[in-house]
Specification:
The protein has 428 residues and is mainly alpha-helical. It has 22 helices and no strands. 48% of the residues are buried.
Length: 428
């Protein structure tokens, strides 16, 4: 939130640092969630300088006085403690804490989604809050029909057809809920809620991320499918990460990877593929904490696991070496190693990435790295490539931030103002 507000004003980090009596390094680490901003006085100064309402900053910040965690992982194989996440056992207190965090976000205006995006998610929000979705009249409420609905939703996501997915997903969830057979129905519902979490992340609606992740995990446990449970844990990890609980989010993903790899009731290639996806997610979160050693250890283990695993086209999660490479690119970026990230990106053939969503995400990550490296022309070219691959990807918050920064170079970048308009970025 601080980074977005600063970029809207067109300020470099050193200007903001001077205005709030902090160092440029402090601002950089605060914006990347490497250090917590839990001083109310500091938040008040930031609020005044950036014209961001103080309640919004308070909602996004850790609780004042919250002690920093010392549970840095020294290797990817460290055993995770029993109280590391909200999904373990029947820890109702932690589940309430997650939903309370979501409620804080719901209580304030949508700060990270444009009005068009908020409208896009309205049917899903109606389903979550009021259960108003109904089974479409032409739906086939049978195991085959529900399986086809899950597959269609997955394909919409992978093709980056987010508007279509947002319209159809609530009805498909209602269709799956109407299926007879508790376990079969619950697994399908969990699969659809897992997809819903990823959609909400794409559109930047963190309140819905927390709630849909909770629904996914509860349904997955009823269904009892190990791979669906593992993917739901990954979504819960993402929800906690987006609420700023980075140590907990890392532990959740690592423990889930250990559990799914130990499940002998699931074919080994699928177990390993699921585990690699969880480890890559944990590596990303560790990098967001600035924990370089843990991030590199986890992404290395994810790569080794991915080599032994294998996914099928209708797998519940996107996994494999290419997926790990995309996470590794993000890890380098989060750790400030833009040069290494670009070197890695040059080894990736974008046309070989199997889905439009992956291709768009790859080019956006490349653009972020070029922006970090101070190369606006290359950043802009990467964003245009992302738009060609997956037009709806450019509405993401990260792209809007980049587009806002590129407007300062509009004389050198033909068409950048029109591009910024297409992303939903305000153009003066």
């Amino acid at each position: 939130m601080i980074a977005k507000a600063r970029r809207r004003k067109g300020w470099p980090q050193r200007d903001l640092a001077a205005m709030i009596d902090k160092s440029e390094s402090w601002v950089s680490q605060a914006e990347r969630d490497v250090i917590p901003v839990n001083s109310v006085e500091t938040l008040r100064r930031i609020s005044d300088v950036l014209d961001v309402p103080l309640p919004e900053l308070l909602a996004a910040a850790p609780s004042p006085g919250q002690p920093p965690t010392s549970a840095h992982r020294r290797s990817a194989s460290v055993r995770v403690g029993r109280n590391s996440g909200p999904e373990e056992g029947d820890d109702r207190m932690r589940r309430r804490e997650l939903l309370a965090a979501a409620a804080v976000v719901f209580a304030s205006p949508l700060a990270s989604a444009t009005p068009a995006e908020a409208g896009t998610l309205a049917p899903l929000e109606e389903l979550l809050l009021y259960g108003t979705a109904s089974v479409p009249e032409d739906s086939d409420v049978s195991p085959a029909g529900v399986a086809a609905a899950v597959k269609a939703s997955r394909e919409h996501f992978r093709a980056a057809r987010y508007d279509t997915l947002a319209k159809t997903l609530p009805g498909q969830i209602a269709q799956a809920q109407a299926l007879k057979g508790a376990e079969e129905s619950a697994t399908a519902v969990a699969d659809l809620y897992n997809i819903a979490v990823r959609l909400c992340i794409k559109l930047g609606e963190d309140g819905l991320v927390a709630i849909t992740a909770d629904r996914a995990l509860n349904s997955a446990r009823i269904g009892g499918d190990a791979l669906t449970i593992a993917e739901a844990h990954r979504m819960v990890s993402s929800a906690w990460r987006r609420q700023g609980h980075l140590a907990r989010a890392t532990d959740i993903a690592v423990r889930a990877a250990q559990e799914v790899r130990a499940d002998r009731g699931t074919p080994e290639p699928a177990r390993l593929a699921s585990g690699s996806s969880l480890l890559a997610t944990a590596a990303y979160t560790a990098a967001k904490r600035g924990d370089r050693q843990t991030a590199h250890a986890l992404i290395g283990e994810a790569a080794e696991t991915a080599k032994a695993g294998r996914t099928i086209p209708d797998a519940r999660t996107d996994a494999g070496l290419q997926q790990v490479l995309l996470h590794q690119l993000s890890v380098h970026y989060l750790l400030g190693d833009a040069g290494q990230a670009i070197d890695l990106a040059r080894t990736v053939d974008p046309s070989a990435l199997p889905t439009a969503e992956r291709q768009g995400r790859f080019f956006i990550d490349v653009a972020r790295c070029f922006d970090q490296w101070g190369k606006p022309e290359q950043c802009y070219r990467a964003l245009l490539a992302a738009e060609r691959a997956a037009p709806q990807e450019i509405r993401r918050g990260a792209v809007k931030d980049l587009a806002g920064g590129l407007l300062r170079h509009d004389r050198r970048l033909p068409g950048v103002r029109a591009f910024a308009c297409r992303t939903g970025t305000p153009v003066n």
